[in-house]
Amino acid sequence: QATGVLSYFDIAKLDTDKFIIFYARSTSSSVVRYKIGTVSGTTITLTAEGTAFTSGSTVSSITACNVSTDKGFFAFTGSVDKAIAFTVSGTTPTFGTALTIDANVTGPKVSTLIGTDKVALAGGGNGYCQIFTMSGTTLTGGTAIQYSSTLTTPTAQEMSITSPATDVLVIGYEDKSNAATVSGTVPTFGTEIQDAGTNPASKSVVAKSSSVIWVTYDGGAKILTLSGNSLTDTSKEMAAFIPSSFQRSILLNLGTYIAAISAGTTANVSYLYVEGMSNNTLGIAQTTVSKGDTVSVLLRGVDTNQTGLTAGRIYSASNGVLV
Fold it and tell me: Rounded to an integer, what distance in angstroms lies between the CA atom of residue 298 and that of residue 286?
């Protein structure tokens, strides 16, 4: 547990049972700190706090993403915005030399892996995106290209990025989204489209497939189609998946399903919705339990803890029963 209030943070996967958290505290807010977590069953063990980088001023944005097993990328907004590649051995990270981000990539930032050792970084200040390549812990950045000239002042919650295929990316921001194809370190953006209500308080985009993008924002969710760098709004709302009463949602790709973690108007309450399942079903319980007890629930993958099912048959959940 870190002391003080976390001002900004992000998390990146390192392996199937390992992750890293980068954060800045309200105290000593110029320092980007980290902890590495390992997972055993449902138990999380965190390392002691470490320092990843010390900025010359208050850190006002942090983004991180996985590159490959035990390898990642993080960037932050500070007196001079920096990007850093890192590797991890066990629970010990090795950070490369910080690379100054293109001066056009300002404001809150989001990042995603778009190919082997290649990361896209988008900033919400001036609407620019920069592509980085990695060799070990050495970063090389391309020239930033503008994806939007209509941005106002998005927060980190109003920025999102996903990669539906190698060298393809989609950026969601405020009430719009845009897509790009990438050659080397040069992104070519299409025409941005409006896909949300005016000035939403949150925005999340995730690739359902190489040609289908799901978008959620406060008060709505919909489906876009993607061809090259061209996005099309299908006008298909997903109200049954994410009710409009929820104020903020984050989309997650679980591999087989898309999930949404949503926060409503009730304080300190969040909900998990999983595509293709009733809103009362999260997954398959792994043991028989009584009401009020805790239980491990399998959300994805192959469940081997059941009997009486026919191999190859498709089952669906109905009122808690597989039919």
Answer: 7
